[in-house]
Each structure stands twice: as C-alpha cells, then as structure tokens.
Amino acid sequence: MNFVIDESLQSWIYRCLYSYGQSDFSAVVGCNGFWNKRPFFPKGINFRNKAIPDKKLVEFLKLSGFCAKKADPFENPIKYVVEANYILQGQSRSLSKKGQLAIAYCSSCIKESIESIGFGYFKADWLYGEGCKIHGSDLSILSAANRTNALKQLRFVLCGLDIDSEQNSKKNTEFLTRQESASSAYYVMPCILDEFFKVASSPISGCFPGSHYVRFYHPNGKKKELSKYELNFHYLDFQSKYREEFVMFLEKRAEIINHKYGINEVNSFSEKLIKKRGVNCSKCSVWAKTDYCPIKPIQIVNLDSDLNWYARNPCDFASEYSCV
C-alpha cells in the first residue's frame, strides 16, 4: 500500500496495519491515545517498500519531521538513512509506550478525500497543529484517554463520520515543530581531522605561520587531548585565519570524493566528502572509533564471533593466505 503525497507517516503506517488485518497498533498509537512521534513498521509485517523510489520516500518522510539533514560539516551526512531504516525495517513493539503528538484532523478534508480517492487519511501538516490550510479552519483533536478508544475514534473519523463536539478538545496538546533541512557543500571526515591536528600541532611542519601550535600544548609542554568539538573549532578557526595556508594543506593532505549511497536503490544520493589523501577507506582500522564517517570499511567475520575486525581487506587476506 503506497502513501498519499501529503499524508503523515503515522497515517500511512496505521492504514497499512489496518489493511493487513493487524490488531496491535502500538507502533503508531501510544497507550495514552496520542500518535507516536517515532512510528515504525513492527516486526513480522511483510511490508514491501523496495518499490518506492528513494527520493520520493525521503521527501515523504521529511513532511512528518524525519530525515532532516543538518548543515554541520562534521555531521554524518547520511544519518537520515539510519532513521529511514528504523521506520521501514521493523522494530520491537512497546505496548506501554506513551504517544507524544495529538491526533489532529480536518473532517472536511477527510470527507473530500473519501469522495476523490476513495479513502480518508491524516495529512502531515496536521502534525504541526497549524490549522487547515485548505479550509482555513481550526483542527479537531481526538480526546481519547487510551489506545483502545483512540483506535475506535480513528475508524469513525477515517470513514467521514462526525464525532461529538465534546470529544474534539484536549488539554496540553503537543505538536511537531518545523525544522529546516539544510546541507553542507562538503563534509569533513575524521581521518582528515586527525591529519590536520597532526600538522597544526607540529612546530616543525611549516604548514601554518607563527607559533600557532602552542594552543595544542599544556604549559608543561605536554600535547593536549582534544575533544571532537574542540578539534572541529580549531579546524574552522585555522580555515578562517590562514586561508592560503589552509588551501595548501588541503591540496597536499586531502582529497574530495563523491560518496554515493541509497536506501532501496543503488547510488540514488551522493555527498562530497573531504578525507585524507591516499587512504583506502575499505581498510580503515579506526572507523569503529568515529561516529559520523558514512563509509563503512569491509569487515571480516570469522567463525568465532569474538574475532571480528576492520583492518584487513578480504581480497588481500584471501590472496595472502591462498584462500582463492
């Protein structure tokens, strides 16, 4: 079952579960009668999402507050893929989990939808509680105190039936807050950050002018151990203060690659990454220590599960030990 282009993720999952004859809706409706803020397709549901084009899927998820990219050049640029997989690949259910978002709707829109496409649905705009943009009216809100009553009211509403006015109010309602999605021209990888620290903190590298390196040392001469955020700050600071020298550093020590990836499709998206020049990402031995490099190295999995590592390429390993 496909989604309607302006439908909310919660509504789509609810309709899928209902059409599959499911009786457990805890993945989308909380025990308190609210929408779950992070709904998902539960395990055991044979959901065929492979036919949905990646770009169409991501644009749809963005409407419900998911898959918003950040402009921070030190963030993982494909983190939203993990978020999409969380929704689509099936998670364990939690019957006692409370929902966070009020179930708001415009009854006129639902009746018009039934007349035009044969069924009703909840729009993504209603998750933000901003009123109906089509009819210029306030939204009605389900006032069910628990999941059972909410599911009963959902069936009535989606059939185009009116609910008594006393049920259309709810105190302390919560809605989503709109977030702007942005992207950076380039994303800085951990390997080039480590190379920058190595060069910038060296008094003999000659890459940057003056005694800049002293900021990386304690008064007793011991080199500082910088946090990720401190290193990010110095990287941007040097980039701003020593423009020409920084460009020369990047030309000698860095390279830009076009990393392609996808969700259901192959290479449907791409991002430009700045990494250390000459480093083979498939053999990276420090990938597991980082939290935002999108290029996962090739992993060797041994019969003994305690002996997994990322340092060796399987092709090199097989050639060395005559496994092929």
In short:
This protein is mainly alpha-helical and 324 residues long.
Descriptive notes:
The protein is 30% helix and 7% strand. It is built from nine helices and five strands, in the order αααβαβαβαααββα. The strands form two sheets. Strands 3-5-4 form a three-stranded mixed sheet. The longest helix has 14 residues, at 228-241.
What order do the helices and strands come in, and which of them pair?
Elements: H1 9-19, H2 54-63, H3 79-88, E1 104-105, H4 107-117, E2 140-141, H5 147-158, E3 187-188, H6 190-200, H7 228-241, H8 243-253, E4 254-261, E5 269-276, H9 314-320
Parallel strand pairs: 3-5
Antiparallel strand pairs: 1-2, 4-5
Helix pairs in contact: 7-8
Strand order of the largest sheet: 3-5-4
The run of helices and strands is HHHEHEHEHHHEEH
Unreliable spans: 165-171
Number of helices: 9
Estimate the strand proportion: 5-15%
Distance between the termini: 45 Å
Helical content stands at 25-40%
Question: Which outline best applies?
Answer: elongated
Query: Can you summarize the main beta sheet?
Result: 3 strands, mixed
Total number of beta strands: 5
Which key features would you list for this structure?
single chain, mainly alpha, three-stranded mixed beta sheet, 5 strands, 324 residues, two-stranded antiparallel sheet
